Amino acid sequence: AGSALEIYAHVPSDWSQRQYISDAISEEKLIAHALPLTQESFDALEKRNGETKDGIRLVTVMDHAQAQKWKFGEQSIDEALENPHVQAFLGGGEQAEAYLEVHQKVHGNKIYVWHSNDLGNVPVARPLVLFSGYLYSYFSFFNGRRVPGVRRASVSEPVRAGGAPRKNISIENLIEDVNLSDKVKDYIQRNYK
Q: Is the CA virtual torsion 90, 112, 180, 125 positive or negative?
C-alpha cells in the first residue's frame, strides 16, 4: 500500500448517482458522514488524474500528508487562489478565478476552507451538499440537504453517467424547486440572483 491519497473529482461515477446515495443513507453505510467507495471506483478516479474538459480540471490527486500542510480556515481570496485544495475543488485555472471573483463580490475578501483529516481504511466520497445556502462536503445528508449540479454556460451540455441528456439547472430552477425550504430559496435569491 502506498501513501494515502485525496482525489477531487468533477465527474459522474457510481457513487455520485442518486440511488447509490439514497441506498447508502437508508442502509446506514455512511462512514463519518461520507459515502463509502469501492476500491475499484477509487482506483478508476486515480487513473484519471489531470484529466480536463472545457478548461476545467476534472480530477486532481493529492498526497494526503502533503495536503495537510496547506492553510485551512479563514483566508483571503488571494491566499485561496494559491491553495491547491481550492484549485482542485473549483476545477482549477479560470474556473477557480471566476468562482472566487463572484465569491468576493458577494461575501467579501475572505473565504473559509475546511478540510477533513479523518482517513480510515475504506475510500470515501464527500459530495458537495447545499444546506442553509452554503456548500459543504463534511456534513451528512440530513435535514433536507441537497446535492447540487449546476454547470457554467460555456461548458458543453451536461449528461448523466449513462450518457442521457441532463436537464440544465439554473438559479431560477433551484428557486422554483418545491423540495427546497423557503429559507434556502430566500438565501439563493438574495445572494445569487
A: positive
- If asked whether residues 61 and 144 sit together in one domain, one would say yes
Report the pLDDT averaged over residues 71-83: 90
Domain extent for 109: 71-114
CA distance 148 to 192: 14
pLDDT for res 162? 47
Based on the fold, state whether residues 62 and 124 are members of the same structural domain: yes
Residues in the chain: 193
Query: Read out DSSP for 19-42?
Result: HHHHHHHHTT--BTTBEE--HHHH
User: What amino acid is encoded at 60 in this protein?
Assistant: T
Instruction: Please check whether residues 144 and 62 belong to one and the same domain.
Output: yes
Q: In total, how many domains does the chain have? A: 2
Q: Alpha helices of the chain — where are they, by DSSP H? A: 18-26, 39-47, 64-67, 77-82, 84-90, 93-107, 171-176, 182-192
Asked whether the whole model's pTM tops 0.70, one would answer: no
